Structure formats: C-alpha cells, structure tokens
Known about the structure:
Blueprint: H1 2-19, H2 52-63, H3 65-68, H4 74-77, H5 91-106, H6 109-123, H7 141-157, H8 160-175, H9 185-189, H10 192-204, H11 207-218, H12 223-228
Helix pairs in contact: 5-6, 5-7, 7-8, 7-10, 8-11, 10-11
Amino acid sequence: MEKKILAGTFIIALITAGCSGKMENSNYPGNPEPLLQNAYTKLPLGSVKPEGWLKAQLEAQADGLTGHVDDFWPDLVNSAWRGGEGEAWERGPYFLDGLVPLAYLLDDERLKNKVKEWIEPILTSSTDTGWYGPAKNKDRWPLAVANKVLMQYYEATGDSRALEVVTKYFRYLHGTPPDWPDKEWRGVRAMENAVTGYWLYRQMKEPWILEVISSIQNNSSDWTSYYEK
C-alpha cells in the first residue's frame, strides 16, 4: 500500500509540473518575460569541460595560431585594444572571441594570463558615456564583437567589471540608437549586437534593454523577408 501511495504521489507531482507552464531553472537564467522560453539553454562558458578528441583539438589551437598569433602578427602585437598604438578596429576583438573561450575551456594559465593582458585595457577604457575600447575607434561594429568577448569573460570569471562595461555600452545605445543603413554591411551585421542584448536582459531583467534590441532590429537589414523570398 505504501508503495502505491508513493507512486501515486510521484505521478501527481509530474502532472502538476507539466501543467504549471514553464519551470524555473535554478542553475542558469532562462528568458524573463515577455520573451518566449527557449527549448534549450546555452550553458555558461566553463560549465562543460572538453575531453578526448575535442580537448586534443583545442590544445592544438593553444599550441598553434590562437595561442601565439598575437606574438608576431603586427596588427595584434601593437593592437590598440591591448593598449598599443596599432590597429584599433575589429582584429583584436575577433582574436579575443576565440582566445577567451579557448583559455577557459582548457583552464590554461598561460592563455588566461594572455587574456588578462588584453582584457584589462578594455575594462578600464569604459567612459562616462558608455563608449569603450581604443579612443581612435569611432565605429560601433568592433564593439559588437567586443561585447561577445566580455559576455564570455564574465561567464568564465564572474568579473563584474565586464558586466558593467557591457551594461554602460547598452545604455549608450539606448540614448543614441544605431543608424546603420539597411543595405550597407553594417546593417547586415547589426543584429549581432542583439546576441549580447538578449544575454544582458537575462542577467539584468530591465525593460530598457529590450528597447535597445528593438532599435537595433529597426535599423538592421530585414533578414526575415530575405529568407521568406
């Protein structure tokens, strides 16, 4: 009899859970309202550690270009993103978009020290307006890539400064909506800012962030119509 009661209680619990709509995830933030819930949740960087073949491939990257290209390629050696006087556009952020996850997936101290060498100048570059990065860069595009870098760095380290820089930049976007022409490449790539925007909304749950994402969409190429043709 006791087993039947326990089994019945378990079934009722399952039915109740299934009828309660969405279930909160206590480990990782889902989509707050009014966003729809995703079928799957992207785990924060570092939640899963590579093993076997995949780990060997990542170690090859660490020993190869990703782990050393900034030691000899002039655009990275003297990059303005790391405090130098050189290239100040997209190459530094693109490099970091690969270096940061590689360093923390492998838990490689050499690579993590390299990340810090690059990240510290970025974190300290944030201005009162919310703009950040090399002073001579006036283009929003490389910051879209840098936002993804800071997003991953925050997930891996919990360094609140990274979240603060991204939040301040989206405040800047809120006050100065983007004006990328639809038919230019900036309009084509503009929605990449929304990747960080939705992530930031999951972290902060502040409605003004959705307003920024809407302004980005309204000033971007119409990808929906493009794929419906």
